[in-house]
Every structure is written in structure tokens, then in C-alpha cells.
Amino acid sequence: MMDRASVLQSLLKAVHLPAGVQSHVNGELVPGQGDDIQLIDPFTEKILCVYSDAGAQIAGNACDAAKSAQQKWFYEHSAAQRGQVMQDISRAVINKTEELAQLESLIAGKPIRDCRIEVGKVAEMFAYYAGWADKLHGEVIPVPSGHLNYTLREPLGVVFQITPWNAPIFTAGWQIAPAIATGNGVVIKPSELTPLTTVALVALAESTGLTKGLVNVLCGTGPTTGQAAIEHTAVRKVIFVGSPQTGKQVALSAAQALKPCVLELGGKSANIVFDDANLKHACLGAQAAIFSAAGQSCVAGSRLLVHHAVHDELLSMLSQGMEKIQLGDPMNDATEIGPISNAKQFSHVTDMVSQAKATGATVAATPINAEKGYFVAPTIISGLDNNSPSAQTEIFGPVVTTIPFEDESHAISLANDTQFGLAGAVWTANVGRAHRVAAAVRAGTFWINSYKAIHVSSPFGGSLNSGFGRSSGTDALMEYTSAKSVWLDSAETPRIAFGYVPE
Fold first, then answer.
1. Any catalytic annotation for residue 264?
2. Among this protein's residues, is 479 annotated catalytic?
3. pLDDT tens across 348-402, in order?
4. How far, in Å, CA of 390 to CA of 402, rounded?
5. Nearest to 290 by CA among 200, 394, 196
6. Of 99, 192, 264, 394, which is the active-site residue?
7. N or C: which end of the chain has fewer CB within 10 A?
8. By CB neighbour count within 10 A (0-12 exposed, 13-18 middle, 19+ buried), where does 395 fall?
9. Which residues contact 246 (CB under 8 A, 6 or more apart)?
10. What is the pLDDT of residues 141-186, one digit of tens each?
């Protein structure tokens, strides 16, 4: 069997990239200038490759390239032409689905079946925003002065995007597509732990016709490479997807440079099950909400709030169901849960479970047969209240905390008793109750008798520690543009009531 480092090199060749990791700047691959960074295979815990942090100079070059290319992209291409290029990118991504999915699976530790779906969604993102490229326009405002007043939606210029390790290519498409559809240049820094699929995506886009230098990829760390990009004068806005802790640091850095942000952060979402719900459906939904992607999802249903009358029954069903979930090699088609993506996160998840045990929680977990890899089994924590660390802290692993509730008002109170405001769900046969709970729970996305349905056409984002701004749907078009108000005075005599006409 080929070792995983050799598999990596084969996959890089398949997506037309050289061996190793390099930044993609102005249409060229550029080696880093900073300290060494190791890429670790989360399945074997072995080093896949070592590369150099990009550093401040390369970050500056990327921002300059994006600024220059943005002028060509916006002023030398019509909106319809920009949309056509994006449609071509969408088709190119579809044609490279398997290669991109395998590369993502190897680097991020995500099951290959999930990666194929996410690559397909990236293609869908470019196609969706391609359709918007020539449909974004302003409006005429009937101002009382008699002027002709109209607005234009203009691109910001260059935006800097930071994406996470849990869904590298998905979040790259999620951010890049609306940014370039609205005419912007992009500098994107994927997590230093999972940079390769973002580089592959941008290289593929350029080979399809995207203006070289319009999208630049920085492979490096936040304090060095990322900080330099935030401070660069060409950058007009910062978009960050990741943890609340890092998000605060990014927001502070951007604020010091007087630049606005969109922050897509974490969650501690409540998945609420009433006693009139179809418990089999709710059980399936609960499993998908927390165990899929090994729980490494910002919208994971990590708090399972269950009516006291059916709490034990649903818990038993959930325990039986999770015993059948297949853990294993993420590149194996049968695998449903892969390893945690990196050692730091693995330590955090296992520490949170140990802490819950130490405070008296009942912890149920399926056995793990793997002798290597950052594996965490599907785990249920019960017997703790909503104030416990496991109920208030984002674990970001396949670990759910179950809490019983008494009635509707109690469920809503528990759901909102958190510093997050990203997502949630309710399972009930009562239509009125479903809509009441959906309205009352603080969340940017809320599902009724479902979980994790998401689409590029629908707005996504949160509040409080879950961040602010929206990163999809038509809302994203507003995030990546600014309104310009234009006034035309058509009167024979100017409507200016000040000053003197020279004789």
C-alpha cells in the first residue's frame, strides 16, 4: 500500500500542482519565507509534508496583485462576462470533483463521501453567484428636491478572507464566489493546517479563465501572514470563519486598521425535541446534527434539549443508533466519521469529555478500535445542567450534551441561555409551537423537523459569540459592495441657495 505522503504527491499531481505547499500569488506558486509548518495526517498522525510560512512580504505582494487584477476584472469585463467565467469555473470544479475530494479528505481527515458532496456545493456556489453578476444594481430614489437621485452598488476593491480547517474547500468557495461576482479582488488565507485544496481551487479557476491575480492564496499563520494582509492598505474588508477566540483577535486587528469585518464564528446550538415529535426522525436528526463531520461544524446540534417525558427514551435510541456509525480511514467510502482534524482540537475535545466525567456526568461512548489517529467516538453527556462547561463551551467534536426540559417556555429559556446565536432546531408535530419556538430562539438559522439543511442562496450568520454579518444568499452581495448615491440637478437654474454668480 502506498504511504500517505506518497498519496499526497499523487493527488497534487492530479490537480496540476507541484509537490509541497506554496502560496498562489499573481498566478504563480511562491514558496514561503518564514518558519516551517508541518502538515500532519490526522488518520496516521504522521507528517505528510513540511512547508514555509508565507510571511509579510508575500502577503503584501498578494494584496498588490489583487488590487491590480481587480481593476481589470471589474472595468475590462462586463458583468455578464464575469458571470460566464464563473459558470466555467463551476463546470471545471465538477470535472475535478474526485481529485479535489480526495485531496480534501487526506488533508482535513473528512470522510471522502462528505468531501464529494462539499466539492459539488462549491461548484454550485460559483454557478449561483455567476447568475447574480449582471443582476446587481441600484435604485432610483424619488427625493423631494426634484433631483434625479440614483444609487450604484460598487465593489469594495480588495477583501481579505480567512477560512478554517474543518471545511477548507467549502469555505473557500463560500467566500470567493460572492466576492468576485460583485467585482472584488481577493486575498484568502486558509488554515495553515489545510491549505492545499484552496490553492488547487484557485489554480483551477485561473486555468479556466479567471483573471490572474484576482484571487491569491496565502499559505501561512495568522500572526505573521494574516496580520500583514489585514494591515495592507489595499484591503478594504476582512472576512473570518473560525473560533470566537481567534475571531476577536482578527476583529481587533481590523478595527485598529479601521476596516469592517464579517465574522462567522462558533455555536452551541440547541436541538429541541418535544414529546409529540416523531422520535425516530428526531433521533436521526440528532445524530446528523452532532456526529456527522465528527461534530466539527459550527452549526452542530451540541445541546440536545429533550422533553422530560421522552428524554430517556430518545437517549436510548440515540445510544443504539450511534453504535452502528462507522469510524475509520476518511478515504474509505464506508467511513461515516473520520478523525478529529488536528492534535490541538483532539486534545480539547478529549479534555472536555474528561472534565464532564470528573464533575459527575454520565458519559456514554462507542468503543474505538483504531490504534492511531485523532479519533473521538460518538459521545453522549447527560446528568449535567445547562450551566455546565459541556453545555456552554463549544466542544467541536462528536459530543452531545443532553438536557431535559419541562415545557415550551423552559425549552426556549434553555436554548437562549448561551453566549452563542448561530443555529437551532425544533422537533414537534404542533405547527403553532414550531413557529413560536423558531421565532423565540436566538439563531441566524433555525430548522423545523430537520437539521443542517443549508444552501448558498440562503443567508447564513449569527450573533453574539457566533459573530456578525451574513456570508451567503443575496445578503453576501451587500457585504461585498457599497452603495454610492448619485445626484443630478436637471433644473435650468441650479438648486443651490448659497454663493454669488460673478459678474
1. yes
2. no
3. 999 999 999 999 999 999 888 878 999 999 999 999 999 999 999 999 999 999 9
4. 10
5. 394
6. 264
7. C
8. buried
9. 222, 240
10. 999 998 999 999 999 999 999 999 999 999 999 999 999 999 999 9
- Give the helix ranges, DSSP H, for 155-235: 168-181, 196-208, 227-231
For β-strands 235-241 and 303-307, DSSP reports them as unpaired
Is residue 396 within 8 A of residue 295, CB to CB? The reply is yes
The sheet with strand 270-273 has its strands ordered as 362-365, 379-382, 399-405, 303-307, 270-273, 423-427, 445-448
DSSP symbol at 327: B
Residue length of the chain: 503
Element (H, E) at 479: helix 473-479
Write out the three cell numbers for 368: 474505538
Q: Write the single-letter amino acid at 130.
A: A
Burial of 464 (0-12, 13-18, 19+ CB in 10 A): middle
State the pLDDT at residue 67.
98
Q: Please identify which of the residues 192, 219, 298, 394 carries the catalytic annotation.
A: 298
Going by pLDDT thresholds of 50, 70 and 90, the confidence category of residue 471 is: very high
